[in-house]
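Handout, section B. The chain below has 43 residues.
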Amino acid sequence: MERWQITQEKVQSVIRKIVEVSQPTSIILFGSYVRGQTGLRED
């Protein structure tokens, strides 16, 4: 596994940190990973 590869665990970790620090009312995620369409040519 590549060091910079986005994983579900990394996404969840970032979400937890955002919520802990800023306590937002909502978080909007976008991009191919969130849609479940990851690939070499995706964002």
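Note. The chain has a mean pLDDT of 81. Compare this with the example in section A.
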